[in-house]
Amino acid sequence: MKKPAGGPDQPELVQLLTPEGERVEHPDYAIDVTPEELRGLYRDMVLTRRFDGEATTLQRQGELGLWASLLGQEAAQIGSGRATRADDYVFPTYREHGVAWCRGVDPTNLLGMFRGVNHGGWDPNENNFHLYTIVIGSQALHATGYAMGVAKDGADSAVIAYFGDGASSQGDVAEAFTFAAVYNAPVVFFCQNNQWAISEPTEKQTRVPLYRRAQGYGFPGVRVDGNDVLACLAVTKAALERARTGQGPMLVEAFTYRMGAHTTSDDPTKYRRDEEREAWEAKDPILRLRRHLEREGLADEEFFAALEAESDALAKRVRDRVRTMPDPEDTAIFENIYADGHALVDEERAQFAAYQAQFADEESN
């Protein structure tokens, strides 16, 4: 058995698949995965990356107002997403495109908010996948409250909240940890530590590894190799099962790397070195699993070629869908604010309608 990976000056982390694609064991997180499941995880990551890349290109072409890429974080998201059960409930940030894929959310539905035509294009209760949360860290509180409700209802499902290393410094996350610990809520806090909170490195966020913060609140934390889809799957499965069986919350820190920009409005070349990215590219989560599949003879060229064709078809569907999304009515922003209406909202709607009418008058003249 190999010693869990960590690297110089880093604590040990759970790893089941090395960057070279070699399968290793961990004493606490054993998992049996069939060849079909391995190919499925690879397919999930490849299609998610293709969708993400297409969305980035569409933003550059002016079709989307903004996009938050998950490039490099596919293993953390697919591994943890595939660990959930259908009756579990997921609270994402704005970058969990891979988790949304695992929960059965149509990827084209993720794009409406970034195009500015809706506030979220899916029903959260249809897939137990909450709407994207832009406010940093607030979803940790939402997840904890939901988990407390699940426990009061006597259900055996669990809740998982996603956030990043920067969000871990937010007060909302600290409050969520407190409530989750005190009420023994069935919630897993899944932190994707991608090393950078926009332009702030992790060492400016904390003086201890992030997973150790859980100790101060009275529940366990673990660091997992976030570029190892098998380790993310195994650790998240164990954490969710722990929550379901009444053992309370757990913090999972997926140690990964944001290979792209924070969002398409960001320029990472201003604050990080090319050598850093190159070092992490050698740990690419998709390349890692492909090496394993090829090493063990679990996938052939026909499989990879068919997947490439499926990726092309997905990309075309995304492009076509975005460019044909209908614009909302001009006054739709004023709807569904108050159940019984509100005088101030009515006044603002009328003012906005009058303002819009000016442009119609100018065009007609």
UniProtKB/TrEMBL annotation:
<dbReference type="InterPro" id="IPR001017">
    <property type="entry name" value="DH_E1"/>
</dbReference>
<keyword id="KW-0560">Oxidoreductase</keyword>
<dbReference type="InterPro" id="IPR050771">
    <property type="entry name" value="Alpha-ketoacid_DH_E1_comp"/>
</dbReference>
<protein>
    <submittedName>
        <fullName>Pyruvate dehydrogenase (Acetyl-transferring) E1 component subunit alpha</fullName>
    </submittedName>
</protein>
<feature type="domain" description="Dehydrogenase E1 component">
    <location>
        <begin position="43"/>
        <end position="316"/>
    </location>
</feature>
<dbReference type="InterPro" id="IPR029061">
    <property type="entry name" value="THDP-binding"/>
</dbReference>
<dbReference type="InterPro" id="IPR017596">
    <property type="entry name" value="PdhA/BkdA"/>
</dbReference>
<keyword id="KW-0670">Pyruvate</keyword>
<keyword id="KW-0786">Thiamine pyrophosphate</keyword>
<dbReference type="Pfam" id="PF00676">
    <property type="entry name" value="E1_dh"/>
</dbReference>
